[in-house]
Amino acid sequence: MCKWATAALVAATISGCRSNTSMKGYRATIQSGATAIPEAVEMERMFPQTDHFITHFGFDSSPKQWNSEAFFGKRYILTMQVSVDVDYSSQQVSCIGEPKFYLNEVATAQPLSHGRFELTHGRTLEFGREEWKQLVEAKGDLNVLGFAPTPSVVPNYSEAVEAIRRDRVPVSLRTRMEGK
Prior knowledge:
Layout: H1 3-16, H2 23-36, H3 38-46, E1 50-55, E2 64-72, E3 76-87, E4 92-95, E5 100-111, E6 117-127, H4 129-137, H5 157-165, H6 174-178
Antiparallel strand pairs: 1-2, 2-3, 3-4, 3-5, 5-6
């Protein structure tokens, strides 16, 4: 096969795989999580610096995992993960598992080359939906989980969060739920 034919075949394969895996389709699919995964909306309400994304989005055979990741308190990262099904034609996700939450206290954020950072974690906590409900009722007060917050700021935390979020596609679930 000649070079131009190979290039045309590759371009047709990439662009023709799925019409709804475009950026617009991706955003619409993520926004559908507002109704399918209420915990993700609650996370964004409590912690405005929250990202939502789907692991293996666009791949047929791979299991899909919804991720909501919040950055707060100048030293914490809270991640919520749940298994989901993705219907690409309707741009909808449906929750097929129980959410799991992972709270990590960042101990250090060391700058590396090329704008990257190495984070080390101190205390961690894994919890489920029942504890999440308690945290929501307590308006994000970590004490309700027996995880007394540390008030000190981690140097370089804000820069590390910026680096982590830099290449993510920002999609707000609150705007869909609140009509913004």
